[in-house]
Amino acid sequence: MALDFSVLLRFQDALLKGLLTTLELTLICIVLGCAIGFFVGLARTSDNRILRGVSGFYVEFFRGTPVLIQLFWIFFCLPLLLGTELSNFTSAVIALTLYMGAITSETFRASLRSIGREQYDACVALGLPRWTQTTSVVLPQAVLRAIPTLLSNCISLFKESALVSAVGMADLMFVGSNISNNTARPVEVLTVVALIYFVIAFPLTRAVTFIEQRILTKLAV
Amino acid sequence: MNYSFDFQSVTRNFGPLLDGLVVTLQLTAAANLIGLTLGFVVALMVMSRWAVVRWPATMFVEFFRCTPALVQIVWFFYCVPMLFNVFLGSVTMGILALGMNLTAFNAEAYRASIQAVPREQIDAGIALGLNPLQRILYIVLPNAFRASVPVLLTNGIGIFQQSALVAIVAVQDLMYQGKTLATQTYRPIETFTIVALIYFAVSFPVGQLVGYLERRRAGLAG
Predict the structure, then answer these.
(1) Is residue A4 within 8 angstroms of chain B, CB to CB?
(2) Dihedral class, residue A73 (left if φ above 0, else alpha if ψ from -120 to 50, else beta)
């Protein structure tokens, strides 16, 4: 069969718009998800049994079910339960944020655990209040150590964001499959869509390796 | 909230959901079979001395790791029949698409643990006069396999979850049956909750097992 990639030129703007939606969604969910993830990570290492139980259940549930079903659940069921309409952007943000929160909390938990007991003891010895201890001692170290894994989590989220096309949000994947259906040229269109995702995700995976090898060893954390 | 739950509309239709679960499990098992075997081969290729072998394998791995699984599956379903003129059943296509994805991820897991096999063990193999194939089969493979079990299990259960994506290209797995049932019964909350719980019931024990294996390994090492 003859491949003709020039059909795609006509759809440049549409694809660009889809890509922007994908990036916007990913960025919003990264910020919100990391914030949730950090506090859930703290909650999972807390002494309070109830806090630990609830946060543990949240994390296990979101890591143990397909993202697609989380998305469907929030898209179809949450409006029924709340009795209000949710735009598909809002439900996509909620679903992906909760997913991101669950996976980043595991990252934060691992990095929190790597902070030595003596650091907490030092905080007690210095008489630092709990809040200062968290924000000035625990947070900076945990974040620094978590950076490579967090970046991997961001890449995962970027890839998972393609799922929102299944609930009709006009992201890159959705635009791509629409164009491919309309032009009957799936090979060209879908290949280009895949390449666009690749071009963004690949440098980020290299960055993860780079940070792991250079920056973290240099800082010796 | 004044929603009256009716879980019976779902439990009455449990048959299709179970059929779907069987398809999902078949997809997972077959994809894991492909991923566990081909993944090791690809890992060896990625570490090969010859660039001709290394480059295609590296590109394969990076490409599958850096694009969304959904794009891969949709691409596979639309483009493979057009490009290569092969027409396979949808379950077979699903298995192949998921299997290739898992191959790439497992290759990375194997590579990391192969590189962690201490150099002296391989030197010992050379000293004992084992040929390269024997060194791989008797020294590298058992060592690397044991070290990578937790990651392989995590990847395997990951593909169980990713397999829900084939519902989008109309393979009749658990997710697809759930979607159909939700539309037929007008009971999305009950249906999707039960479907989510079924996925959870399968993934959770495996996740716990991984945690246990990792703790035991850390205990042995320390």
Answers:
(1) no
(2) alpha
